[in-house]
Structure formats: C-alpha cells, structure tokens
Amino acid sequence: MPISLEDITAKVQTIKNRNPVYADLAQWVGELLSTTVKASENFRPSDMKLDFDSLPKAWFQGKSLLNPVELSLDWEQAKDLYKQLVDRIKTMEDGRRQVEGLLKALAEDHDGIPILMTAVLTSDFKAIQTTAQKFKVDPPVLTLLLRLSLRPALLETAQAVQGLLDLNQWTYGHCPVCGSAPKLADLSGEGGKRSLHCSLCETVWTYPRLQCPFCENDNRKDLSYLRAENEEGLRVDLCSRCGHYLKTIDLRELPGPVIVPLDDVATWHLDLVAQKNIDDSDTTKSRII
Ligand SMILES: [Zn+2]
Ligand SMILES: [Zn+2]
Prior knowledge:
The chain is α+β, with helices and mostly antiparallel strands. The chain folds into two domains: 5-165, no CATH class; 168-288, FdhE-like fold, CATH 3.90.1670.10. Helix content is 41%, strand content 13%. The strands form two sheets. It has a seven-stranded mixed sheet with strand order 5-4-3-8-7-6-9. A two-stranded antiparallel ribbon has the order 1-2. The longest helix has 24 residues, at 139-162. The two termini are 34 Å apart. The model is unreliable at 283-289 (pLDDT under 50). Bound molecules: zinc ion (ZN) (2 copies). The site of one zinc ion (ZN) has 8 residues, from loops.
C-alpha cells in the first residue's frame, strides 16, 4: 500500500510525541515527503521491459530483478521535483543559505542525467559528500533531497515489479527488486516476524530474525541488539562479524506503517549509538542504552 498524506501526518505526530527532540526535523521531512507524494500522481514507472513469461532463474539465486543504474527514469520529472523540494527548503530555518548550492549541485549532469541522482542509485555516498562540500551544503540535506526526488519514480517502478514476484521465495538480505541494502526492519504479528525495508525502493520482504541480512551470518554469538531506555519499540540489531547494524521498529509497540525516510531520520540517535558500539567486540546481548 502506498503511503498516504494522512499516514505522513500521523507519523509526524507520533514522532513528536515519542521524542520531542525530533519535532522540527519530523515536521520538515514530513512536509518534503508530502510534496513527493503529491508529485507522484504525475509520475510514470521506468519504461523498462517487464514482458518476461517467468522470473529469471538468477532471481531465485539472489540476483535482484532490476539494476537501479539501468533504469531509464524520467530525469526531467525528477529534476523538477528536486527543484520543488529546494523551494520548500527556502521557508525552513537554515534552508535559505543552502538553496544556491543545492541548485548548483543538480546542474552537474552527464547527457541530461544528473550525476548525483546516479550516485544515489549506486549508493555512491562519497560522491555526494564531495559535492556537498564543494557547494557548501549539508550532506544529509543533499542526500535527502536527491532520495526524495527519485522516490516517486522508484516506488512506482517497484510496485509495478512486485506484482510479478513471489516475495516469500526470496531468502536474501538485499532487496529482491533493486538489490539495495535494507534501511530499516520491523517486527510484527505474533512472535514478531521480521520484515526488511529497502533503502532505495522501499520494497518490504521478510527475513529471519536471528540472521544478519548483510553477511547472512546466523551464529547467535555474533548477533546482539541495543535498545533505548524509555523508548519502547525501538532497537538496533548488530552483527559483530561484518560490523553492520539495522534499526528496528517493533510494530507491536509502535503504530505503523513504517515510512522509511521519516522513521530513518527520527532514529538518528540510534545510528550514533550503533556506530559507537559496533567496534566494541564485547557487545553483550540486549544491552540497554
Ligand atoms: Zn529496493
Ligand atoms: Zn553481518
């Protein structure tokens, strides 16, 4: 189900109630996200070929159905949405000083394809960081705007593809549609079944709870989690073997649906704690932060 404007409003309110530190940020990202949802009415999926009779064999062996770099997205539409988002930034505190740099960053392109949008599709965050420094804009703001301006096209494409897939047959930790890593996980239902949410196209698929989606390690000795005190329903799963972590929202304790761009920014404190802890080989199970 696509996320609605009502879902976004409700989520922003939930975040404000849960953690007032994020009130302004949640409001801000909620507004930008709403702009993308309104714009998505005019978006078309990528004009890729979906006329195969059966799923490619390689999909069952872990090769995602699409390669984001090969998608022929409507770049003009994405650029137009980016400019709309930059326009919204002007009204926000600290936003105005970044506008010029944000527009210059978009202007760098290759055959009409914005270089930085390609960097998002290939998860080349170093390129984004370098450009952000060059044009004196905040890297997280630049990343967020690029992600959001591609979001309608990617979600449309993912939805068109998902109908062709039996996601229950996918047993891998990366996205069955676009191959990207998960950004968030949720636990739901009796027993807390775990679902992963793709960082790029937001496809949701189930994955075993006691296994690391990044390295497929299922040795319990290497797996641990942290949870925030007084924050029911939020935790970070850590894998000491590969050094990755995944923020998890327990939908038995917090209201859904998960909205990746919003839930991600409203849990940045967990990223900080996880990054600090991941190098600590003495991480013990279920430590409370
Ligand atoms: Zn994906
Ligand atoms: Zn791992």
